[in-house]
Write a structure and sequence with these properties.
The complex is a heterodimer of chains A (170) and B (140). Chain A contains three helices and nine strands, in the order αβααββββββββ. Chain B is α+β, with helices and mostly antiparallel strands. In chain B, a hairpin with a 2-residue loop joins strand 3 and strand 4. The chains are: A mainly beta (170), B alpha+beta (140). Chains A and B meet through helix 2 and strand 4 of A and helix 1, helix 3 and strand 2 of B. Strand 4 of chain A pairs antiparallel with strand 2 of chain B.
């Protein structure tokens, strides 16, 4: 954990901020799983064959574990008001890159499940200069729950928030 | 795959994916990551990239495929983490590989720790780690 005294007050104050991303617009469904498998050439029968999935101890067809965010993304049309995100609070550093991702999987995602997500800022680094510019690593954790309020998966990623054109590391 | 059959140092059979513009568009749609750098060459180049490039979610899905293809339908992926160091573009073939780093028991579960990598013809693009739970022979 970094020395928080080095953090500007406005950055320190947003650690712990939460945003409720709400329920997915659709339930977990076979076509979405199939599109995912096609894009990655994944032929795992657990993702399409109900008999195979049940013979391996599942209640039905499952989705690949890292697919959770797909079922939370907002509809692309018709235009909607975007839900507030915790990253909105990092106002002075609007440009973002993600280089690292960590997942923990708690229980499988079943076709027919309905997922919701909550995200929160769990850490912010002191100011850093990288090859992109000057900013902070903001660690955001996203928690995915199903309709039974069971924690399905947790994703944690430190995102580099910076401002284009700011001083860079040579 | 059973826990007893695995040894530290074992290599997972590697998997490859030929990347085309169509494949990257499929990945953008399937992952619902419509940030234009992943499906729009003009936008990607105007923003300093060499070309449109594979998105974060696709790497997670590709590593999951590598592990599940090897570990089988009785396995359960517990965790995965990965670092994206370089990009993969249309025209590249990305190859995922893995090595068994450690065998251990965690809360009664038989766990295998893996070291993961994705490379293309230019070199290493992504590194990762994962933990997968395997069944035991005696308990089937």
């Amino acid at each position: 954990m970094q020395n928080k005294d080095e953090l500007p007050e406005e950055m320190k104050s947003i650690i712990g901020s939460e945003a409720d991303l709400g329920w997915g617009i659709d339930m977990v469904c076979k076509p979405a799983v199939r599109y995912w498998c096609e894009a990655l050439e994944d032929g795992n029968p657990l993702y399409y064959d109900e008999g195979f999935a049940m013979a391996n101890g599942y209640a039905g067809v499952i989705a690949p574990p890292t697919m959770a965010p797909v079922f939370i993304r907002p509809a692309l049309w018709p235009p909607q008001q975007e839900k507030p995100r915790v990253s909105d609070k990092v106002r002075d550093f609007p440009d973002v890159v993600v280089q690292h991702n960590e997942w923990e999987f708690h229980i499988p995602i079943l076709v027919g499940d309905h997922l919701r997500s909550v995200e929160r800022i769990v850490d912010i680094s002191p100011v850093k200069k990288t090859r992109l510019g000057t900013g902070h690593f903001v660690t955001i954790q996203q928690l995915y729950y199903n309709q039974r309020d069971e924690l399905v998966a947790t994703r944690t990623s430190p995102r580099f928030h910076y401002k284009k054109g700011s001083p860079r590391k040579e | 795959m059973f826990f007893e059959d695995v040894n530290v140092g074992d290599k997972l059979p590697s998997i490859s994916l030929e990347l085309t513009v169509t494949k990257l568009v499929l990945q953008a749609c399937a992952t619902r990551d419509l940030y234009p750098v992943h499906h729009d060459r003009d936008y990607a180049r105007a923003n300093g990239a060499r070309d449109m490039f594979v998105n974060t979610s696709a790497y997670g899905g590709f590593f999951n495929r590598l592990i599940a293809d090897w570990a089988g339908p009785q396995s359960r992926l517990k965790s995965i983490s990965y670092n994206m160091l370089e990009m993969n573009y249309p025209g590249d073939t990305m190859t995922a590989s893995g090595t068994v780093a450690k065998k251990h028991t965690d809360n009664g579960e038989k766990c295998i720790d893996l070291e993961l990598a994705i490379s293309n013809h230019r070199g290493l693009t992504t590194t990762g780690k994962a933990c997968v739970v395997l069944p035991e022979k005696g308990k089937m």
